């Protein structure tokens, strides 16, 4: 079974991708991912991830005896894994045009069934360096404070030694965007500074 | 104009009030510093920082400030909000439009556009602003926060109108005055003819401007003063006898004192107005000996005869009867006699005729011969009444001599007397609102350069000076002042005075002065050079800093002074 999710629902502002089955360690919250198929690679931030039965009319029963871990139950019931899916919601926050990474909505949605991969360090740095990508996250109804904080944390890791400077720069961009919402800014900054 | 470091951008303002400049992150500008911004169509606007503002982009950050803790979130939040949610701005009073070295300089009539970059003014811009062309200049010192830049003022322009040095006690008025006078004497010494020399008549209350000055700044001790620095160009006339390094002595005889000389003393409380009226009456009736006569125990036959010209005098005449006879109240007459006796107890006033007239002639000759004169009061300096009497008597007579010389010249500049600057301390006592109209100093200030005589007033209470006189003071050096009334008196009527008020309020207690007025294109806060033991007017600030040669002629590297036009 492939561990690379594919686009299953696509829009300009966000898309959903799904693993072939149940994935215990999908993309993490705030992680920057890329769809490299189609006319332009599209970069996005993971806003949500959910796992559950593929058929919503057949809810998962809470199996397993006392003392059994989830891995024990899965090993004892291998058919269950085939009935489960992991879905990831990604908010688009940029695309690559030639050599330039633009922190804007992509002109077209990503192709369905295109593979979704982790963005490279270089892509992340080019997307995030001026902090402009944060504006798309702040405006997206899919991104709450935790997503934004996680995205900044995730991007900061790509800057390595310069992560503190990036964090401050991103925070200042956030402060400009949320100038009328000091409590929200405080919440996000607390999430970033973890 | 050479590239300068940007420190902010224009975000608003008004030509008549001030320009608001938002500072770039990490940049700072202090009160009194000069900034410049490019104008559309060429040129730069030059202005002075008159206020520093802490602004908030929205009310949020100030209503809900970040926590004060040292934890990561708090410190990050503070760092994030600085220069975004909250920021620093400065108010800049727009003063001049400058067009580079050698270009035109004009009063500001335009503003830069929004978001125009704002730079710290450089020497080139300040040279253009304070350019004195080919005329001689004094280096006043460095503008605040710009220790590698110096501001020069045209020495002729400085003294062509009256000037004033104001500041509360201990702020350095005397040191600043000494430096300015020192430069003036040194400049005059280089003049080709006596006619071209500007000279000073200094009423030296505390023996500061003669041989040596008691220095209260760093290092203390004594500093060489004018006579010691320029022995051939300064004459000292003490009021005390046996004073070393003097060129004569001022002694006043009772016959030399005219009632008009006493008018200025009304403000000191020693003489009431009716007493001064009685003095005029006595002088008119008795003649030049009036003081000796009325200080006698009893009226002399001469005094009685002059009071009762009809010959009907009583057998016994008391001073009370004499006073009544001449139309004065006996109490006022007593007040006059008490005041005059006080003079007699000092050595300054002696009975009969002193050598006052010849001393005056000598002083006038000395002044018109191109030498400055210091009237040194010594221990009499603490006696305000004596100081005022002597200053008033000398000034009146010397002013008369200059006025006569000026009128005799009939407009022929070659025959006009040289320029005289009368230096008085505690000036508000002489040009007080109540008596300014009666004193010679009020007249000199009002008539300005008509007779080539101007004032350099040194005072700590400018609000007490008559407003009309104060308005005639061309260039003002303002050291620290606490009283709002004093500050208002100095800057009232000046455009951008609200900002200047802030600047004055922020001056340090020593060695900082706001200089503005006739001789300067725009106000400047300066830190005057240190009065070190080896201070010399030829050592400019730039030389001491080891800086490169200047690009303009405002102050040549060879000394404090630029070239002189002959």
Describe the structure.
- The complex is a heterodimer of chains A (194) and B (566).
- In chain A, 35% of the residues lie in helices and 24% in strands.
- Chain A has 194 residues and is of the alpha+beta class.
- Chain A has one domain (6-192).
- In chain A, strands 1, 2, 3, 4, 5, 6 and 7 form a seven-stranded antiparallel β-sheet that branches.
- The two termini of chain B are 32 Å apart.
- In chain B, 50% of the residues are buried.
- The model of chain B is unreliable at 538-566 (pLDDT under 50).
- Chain B is an alpha/beta fold and 566 residues long.
- In chain B, helix 8 (273-286) packs across helix 12.
- The longest helix of chain B has 26 residues, at 384-409.
- Chain B has an eleven-stranded mixed β-sheet with strand order 9-8-22-21-20-10-19-18-11-17-14, with helices on both faces.
- Classes of the chains: A alpha+beta (194), B alpha/beta (566).
